[in-house]
Amino acid sequence: MKMEEMSLSGLDNSKLEAIAQEIYADLVEDSCLGFCFEVHRAVKCGYFFLDDTDPDSMKDFEIVDQPGLDIFGQVFNQWKSKECVCPNCNRSIAASRFAPHLEKCLGMGRNSSRIANRRIANSNNMNKSESDQEDNDDINDNDWSYGSEKKAKKRKSDKLWYLPFQNPNSPRRSKSLKHKNGELSNSDPFKYNNSTGISYETLGPEELRSLLTTQCGVISEHTKKMCTRSLRCPQHTDEQRRAVRIYFLGPSAALPEVESSLDNDSFDMTDSQALISRLQWDGSSDLSPSDSGSSKTSENQGWGLGTNSSESRKTKKKKSHLSLVGTASSLGSNKKKKPKPPAPPTPSIYDDIN
Amino acid sequence: MVVSKMNKDAQMRAAINQKLIETGERERLKELLRAKLIECGWKDQLKAHCKEVIKEKGLEHVTVDDLVAEITPKGRALVPDSVKKELLQRIRTFLAQHASL
């Protein structure tokens, strides 16, 4: 070995050059061979022609390079004029405003869920007749409402009170209730427009009063409608609210306190008494399922009148006028709604009701 | 005399190859060549040529031998001069280093 290497130095340049060329050719051959193996494998595995596309589709997806267009050839700011239709209230909203609107409209926020629920509950209680029961179920379920999770839990604990006494899904109950609510809606001229506010001209004094205890109620200058937001609605000031109340209810009416009108889940004796009396009523109707509708309604009314005072006190938040107009709806709504605690403040308004 | 010279020549080549592999220079050169060939588009050109060949023969009938026979001459011809020069230069310096031992 040593000998041969020594002899290398004795080689002339042409010999060295020949060897260099040989090594180079060897290397290139190696590369070619490696490439051939690669291609062969790709062919046999079927991925060799994968990156091929036919020229037609290549033409279709050519990158567009023109002023005012994006690379797909679309006008790039056309989304600005896009409008979405809200699935809840069917209004069309600019796409950039859609998410905030949906949050409010569906009631996903902390505050807005209360507002939205109240709004829907109001419109259902006052407007609907046949589907009342099911809708109330949905609304009070609140499973889909992120913000009202706590509320829902509370409600569950409330249901513990109800469960032994009644089954909210009992078909007999809902049937009689539907019947009653149907009567009620015929006699109730109250019109409630969920999306635009309330035209106060159509309201009776009781409805006005209940509205003003639950909602902002300030009359818009443009639409002449009442604001249907909560009492704390940021669009209007307390001054405006007070003015509206004085205008409608007289100088004795003050701004009702917001806190007292919110749910606070205490349970008092009148509630349990009402439940017991309802239980008795349930039992009686169980015993005579073939009762005619009229006898049922009279029964219901009798019961409703008997508990009228406690009912209206508990649910004066939005149903006090109903308990005066027709007792059945207060029965129905009370069953689904949480019992409202007696609200001690703002005696001037509530004294009028009672 | 001629036979012994031929023998000596072959022995020398074997010794040089041995040295190339032992020092790892061959591996380095191969890697360099690969990188350079990809860089200059040799691989893409060859791939295009491959596609023609394969389409001609049909996807199922392609063998490695066919490919090598078709591709190697083309591949050798397509190596750019700059790459060839650089590689030869490196081989020469290697030979010079080890010839002087």
UniProtKB/TrEMBL annotation, chain A:
Biased composition (Low complexity): 116-125, 282-295
GO MF term set: transcription coactivator activity; zinc ion binding
Region of interest (Disordered), ranges: 116-191, 282-354
Superkingdom assignment: Eukaryota
Gene Ontology biological process: chromatin organization; positive regulation of DNA-templated transcription; regulation of transcription by RNA polymerase II
Domain SCA7 intervals: 203-270
Cellular component terms per the entry's GO annotation: DUBm complex; SAGA complex
Record's subcellular location: Nucleus
Biased composition (Acidic residues): 132-141
Keyword tags: Activator, Chromatin regulator, Metal-binding, Nucleus, Transcription, Transcription regulation, Zinc, Zinc-finger
Annotated domain remarks: The C-terminal SGF11-type zinc-finger domain together with the C-terminal catalytic domain of USP22 forms the 'catalytic lobe' of the SAGA deubiquitination module.
Oligomer and partners: Component of some SAGA transcription coactivator-HAT complexes, at least composed of ATXN7, ATXN7L3, ENY2, GCN5L2, SUPT3H, TAF10, TRRAP and USP22. Within the SAGA complex, ENY2, ATXN7, ATXN7L3, and USP22 form an additional subcomplex of SAGA called the DUB module (deubiquitination module). Interacts directly with ENY2 and USP22.
Reported function: Component of the transcription regulatory histone acetylation (HAT) complex SAGA, a multiprotein complex that activates transcription by remodeling chromatin and mediating histone acetylation and deubiquitination. Within the SAGA complex, participates in a subcomplex that specifically deubiquitinates both histones H2A and H2B. The SAGA complex is recruited to specific gene promoters by activators such as MYC, where it is required for transcription. Required for nuclear receptor-mediated transactivation. Within the complex, it is required to recruit USP22 and ENY2 into the SAGA complex.
Family to which this protein belongs: Belongs to the SGF11 family.
Entries under PANTHER family matching the protein: ATAXIN-7-LIKE PROTEIN 3 (PTHR46367)
Name of the molecule in the record: Ataxin-7-like protein 3
Organism placement in taxonomy: Eukaryota, Metazoa, Chordata, Craniata, Vertebrata
